[in-house]
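re: that chain from earlier
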Amino acid sequence: MVVKSEDGTEMRSFKFKDEDESQEVRAVERRILLETLANQLPQDAVQFSSKLANVERSENGEILLELVNGTRLCAKVVIGCDGIRSSIAKWMGFSEPRYVGHCAFRGLGFYPEGQPYEPKVNYIYGRGLRAGYVPVSPTKVYWFICFNRPSPGPKISDPSVLKKQAKELVRNWPSELLSIIDLSPDDTIIRTPLVDRWLWPAISPSASDGKVVLVGDAWHPMTPNLGQGACCALEDAVVLARKLANAIKSEPASVESALRSYGSERWPRIFPLTIRANIVGSALQWENPVVCSVRNNVIIPKIVRLGPLLEHTNFECEPL
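^ sequence. v structure.
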């Protein structure tokens, strides 16, 4: 990992293994991950473009799902992993995720002849503004820009406008960042408001309601400041699979018990992570010039230790 200031000055660099032998970082393009997982399923097991329009519970407790195309499904168990704007979560009574005060541009730089960067996580910190990039394959480099904004603002779908806005934010920053943005195909560039949901005990609904359960961002959206959002969703999936493995063969009531057990086991993991990610993001988005100077000249170069900072990644799912 290399951390620089906006003028390109290196504030800190280190190798993960030198700081903590248990640590490693793997940057994976989400599309590749999803395709890899989907390819392990039987053909036609996944029905794409199946947006949910309505959810109902029948008199016998089964869940009726109505899709936008009019298809109706009767489900014995529903696992809602439909993201931060989850229809299932809304049906279960969860609040809308809360905007945290900053937005992010994201994209993938494409180098057909091979990207030139070393396998490093690169961070650049400014005032109320930060960016980063990391290679995700021999030909692609992921990048992001996070910036403060009092409200999310209007949705912009024109890629040329998004690219122009992103470059304008970092126009005087290190040239390699601007180069990666320039080489990003239009369909890879997005701008999203960053949101989260704090699952306060005794206030927030449970992760499950009967035989309906939430997984990943649908249940616990968190800001990307710890790089744990998708990781936690994968952890959820492993734990939930283990809980269901035996229950699915037993009495119907044991399925509901398994879903409740999943929620109880996962909550102590994801609630503190959500708060921690929020606090880290707020600290990294400081605008005060004095505070930023202390961060750049004292905290990052001399105080921060990687081991304790990344302790949260040491989670063992155990084999299925």
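The mean pLDDT is 92.
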